[in-house]
From TrEMBL:
Species, as recorded: Ruminococcus albus SY3
SUPFAM superfamilies (UniProt xref): lambda repressor-like DNA-binding domains (SSF47413)
Protein name, UniProt field: Transcriptional regulator
GO CC, one annotated term: cytosol
Keyword Transmembrane helix in record: no
GO MF term set: DNA binding; DNA-binding transcription factor activity
Gene3D superfamilies, per the entry: lambda repressor-like DNA-binding domains
Keywords of the record: DNA-binding
Domain (HTH cro/C1-type) ranges: 15-69
Length: 80
């Protein structure tokens, strides 16, 4: 059941899994997205929540629709 809060760990896990499936490093992905590698690392560890703009940039770097990333996040939220 949705409690109104977005768990940053789930967001980070999903982004990291998409990145690994594409076979790219954090260094490459952060460069493609135009964000710092340490920022990406913090997002993947669940220490920071990406803004909508950053999530869009990450999705573009992954050559994936942002909606696909959001759907996977929602799916994981629903199973918790």
């Amino acid at each position: 059941m949705y409690n109104g809060e977005l768990d940053p760990k789930i967001v980070g896990e999903v982004i990291a899994e998409f990145r690994r499936k594409k076979g790219i490093s954090q260094e490459v992905m952060s460069g493609l997205a135009g964000i710092g590698r340490t920022h990406l690392s913090a997002i993947e560890r669940g220490e920071r929540k990406p803004t909508l703009e950053t999530l869009y940039k990450l999705s573009c770097a992954l050559d994936t629709k942002m909606s696909a990333v959001v759907k996977e996040i929602e799916k994981r939220i629903d199973t918790e």
